[in-house]
Amino acid sequence: MLSKMMRRAGKCAAVAAAGLMMMSAQAAEPIKIGSFLSVTGPASFLGDPELKTLQMYVEKINEEGGVLGRQLELIHYDDVGNASSARNFASRLLRSDQVDIIVGGSTTGATMAAVPLVEQAGVPFISLAGAVVITTPVKKWVFKTPQTDRMAAERVLGDMKARGLTKVGLISGTGGFGSSGRAQTLEVAEMMGVEIVADETYSGSDTDMTAQLTNIRNTDGVQAVLNFGFGQGPAIVTRNYNQLGIDLPFYQSHGVASDSFLELAGDSAEGLRLPASPLLVPDSLPESDPQKEVVQNYKAEYEARWDSKVSTFGAYAYDGLMLAVRAIEAAGSTDPEAVRNALESISGYVGVTGEFNMSPEDHNGLDADSFRILEVQNGEWKLID
Q1: CA-to-CA distance for 227 and 375, rounded, in angstroms?
Q2: Do 134 and 44 reside in the same domain of the chain?
Q3: Is the pLDDT confidence value at 55 over 50?
Q4: Which of 40, 94, 260, 314 is the Cys-Cys partner for 53 at CB 3.0 to 4.6 Å?
Q5: Residue 339: which domain range?
Q6: Which among 40, 39, 45, 112 is positioned nearest to 312, based on CA atoms?
Q7: 189 in any annotated domain
């Protein structure tokens, strides 16, 4: 009898030990953060700082003990700004790599190509792209960190109205970002009582926009001009605007909110305004601003690590990663549904881009006021509002 009891106890101990070993093994498994970014190609000014940011902070978090006692593993691919490649890489992340969450998608096209796969797989996805279509209408598994193009339109047109400018010439790129920005600007303008008196477009391959800008200049009553686009196009528009000597207030969208744009546009950018993150003017923020410390720290750490100027696009990746970590910690696991629910419940998170307040009705969590209006003065960004 005693021998049987001892054998039974031995079996129980073995089972318990096996269970502990299994739990230990699971605890030791890394949390997989997947990403597809436009690190090279025409949108590399987005993807390059995004990848550098993810790499830097994954390393930092791991050095500090990881998340839930587990290390983070960053699995990333370069989609070269191609939507088809982005879809293929998203599929690989979900099926082969079996990531726990995706933080990526530099462009709207790349993001939207991946959305159906993410929704089908039921894995949380935090996009780094700007168009309103990404989170409107709300998609169960999709979130985003940049403000929407609609918010940018609201902020720009609001600033114009404050200056008494209500008749606007619009020029925009024909890519996903520019097309969406144009559509949102037209809608917002009608709501705000602003008249779009000229409406011109350019393609990504255009190298001169003089004809479009001449049409806008010759339009009766035009009081200001807004360009909605990203990449090389807006810099060309800015230079052409200056060459034509157009003496009207000029605005760009948040798609060019970086020091690299100033380098491309040169002296032609003087006086233009745009909506942007306070990251470009951190020292101009008052001490009472809750974003000041976050923004200053990110800027200092990024520039010290990479010996290059910080970018608002990299900040989108910073916020995306921190939101992912915050949700995983709140969920207490990497269970997809629990992490998704935690993301949707995030409130009062102060990031570099703004203060995020997610909800079942809002998977972006920002408002138009998270944009600051900046103006180029003496070749540098100046905080206006």
Answers
A1: 15
A2: yes
A3: yes
A4: 314
A5: 29-147+291-368
A6: 45
A7: yes
Residue 22, judged by CB atoms within 10 A of its CB (0-12, 13-18, 19+), counts as exposed
Angle ∠(47,354,99) on CA atoms, nearest 5 = 45
Q: Are 82 and 44 in contact (CB under 8 A)?
A: no
Q: What is the pLDDT of residues 267-286, one digit of tens each?
A: 999 999 999 989 999 999 99
SS3 191: helix
Convert the pLDDT of each residue in 348-360 to its tens digit.
Answer: 999 999 999 999 9
Note whether residue 5 is domain-resident.
Answer: no
Alpha helices in the chain, H assignment, sequence order: 2-28, 44-63, 83-95, 108-121, 149-162, 176-192, 210-217, 232-243, 259-265, 292-306, 312-331, 336-344
φ/ψ (deg, to 5) at 21:
-65, -40
pLDDT at 373 over 50: yes
Does residue 379 sit in the same domain as residue 238?
A: yes
Are 128 and 157 found together in one domain? Answer: no
Half-sphere exposure of 265 (CA within 13 A, CB side): 28
Domain count, the chain: 2
Same domain, 186 and 259: yes
Tens digits of residue pLDDT in 56-80: 999 999 999 999 999 999 999 999 9
The pLDDT, as a whole number, for residue 176 is 84
Q: Is 185 exposed, middle or buried (0-12, 13-18, 19+ CB in 10 A)?
A: buried
Confidence of residue 27 (pLDDT cuts 50, 70, 90): low
Residues 222 and 330 in one domain: no
CATH code of residue 176: 3.40.50.2300
**What b-and-e string marks burial along 309-336, b requiring 16 or more CB atoms within 10 Å of the CB?**
bbbbbbbbbbbbbbbbbbbbeebeebeb
Whether residues 166 and 141 share a domain: the answer is no
Is the same domain home to 90 and 222? no
Q: What token pair was written down for 114? A: 């991946």
Same structural domain, 332 and 218: no
Query: Is residue 4 over pLDDT 70?
Result: no
Reduced to 3 states (helix: H, G, I; strand: E, B; else coil), residue 298 is helix
In a domain, 317, yes or no: yes
Tell me how far apart the alpha carbons of residues 362 and 134 are, in angstroms, rounded to a whole number: 11
What are the strands of the beta sheet with 101-104, ordered from one edge? 72-78, 31-37, 101-104, 125-127, 142-144
The answer to whether residue 6 scores a pLDDT higher than 70 is no
Q: What percent of the chain has pLDDT over 70?
A: 93
